[in-house]
What we know:
Helicase, Ruva Protein, domain 3; two-stranded antiparallel sheet
Amino acid sequence: MVPPVDNLIRALAKLPGLGRRSAERAALALLRKPELLLDALTAALQEARATVCCCSVCGGFTSREQNPCALCADTSRDGAVLCVVEEPSDIFAIERSGGYRGRYHALMGKLSPARQTGPADLRLRALAERVGRGGVTEVLLALSTDMEGDATAGYIGELLRPLGVRVTRLAFGLPADSGVGYSDPLTLKRAISGRIACG
Amino acid sequence: MVPPVDNLIRALAKLPGLGRRSAERAALALLRKPELLLDALTAALQEARATVCCCSVCGGFTSREQNPCALCADTSRDGAVLCVVEEPSDIFAIERSGGYRGRYHALMGKLSPARQTGPADLRLRALAERVGRGGVTEVLLALSTDMEGDATAGYIGELLRPLGVRVTRLAFGLPADSGVGYSDPLTLKRAISGRIACG
């Protein structure tokens, strides 16, 4: 295999959902008519790299020109409920469910001894500050239903207890050992309406 | 969804094997830590775009610095057998099978009335010229086992008949309505050793 082709296959194979064989097919399709697919993908990557950033309020993806993001700037949304997610991409999944009209806060991960992610690596202080400023009556935790998600939920419950806010969690309609980003809209919608008290 | 994120998802969804949902997951993974995945993929795409080209002899992928490609330059390979494939990527699939030691010729497609691909759009004149220069005793057609592949095989059989070369075709060990790029190495190896006379 020509080395640059091999490099491209390896870069593609690192994407979630692409194995070695499908990365190979994708690379060869890109190279077959580079002026169509390859140039468009390169341009889209460069544009995204140059313009996409994380919202300074919720941590979700937005453009550098719109910060805070459209969701944070939308005055019609309910500021009394704050939904805490692990990843910026989880916000898209919850929006797609159509079951939520409050605000968001992305932690940028979850507590994980295995990956050496501690409380200081997450946006937990920003969360406490947002809740501390008042106006929020409920914090809805939309976290993974695995041990690390449970530990993160427990930690946040303790962190926010002094602030007197109600902390809830998505109903366990989610399948075990999975994450928000993998759930279908209906499952997410049911889990939002059936959310339970935390701790 | 932020427009540059949406553009990136659409560019990724055009790759074979990636649907809308998996393209979305891939895009969000790229943006989550752009200095890791996104920059590496952009660099690999740019390198491949700048350095990869099609071999002037066989039409397979090679680098601009090595033209003719390594397979065409390899004097240990059998110049008496010429394997005709549709796509440059098919050459990789046949090489992986380990069942072939001859030369290659990529047509860059197959005859297809539906996609308005006629004989002039394929590297058929270059094929006739290569065979006409002598030294080739057998042309092995490694084409799709669908109607368009059959039509292309028939056309090449007629085209090369005046040149007195033996034209063979891969044994029908290949599943129907599929292509060389989708076959596993063993199936390809068996199909190469069981090849049959054409027309």
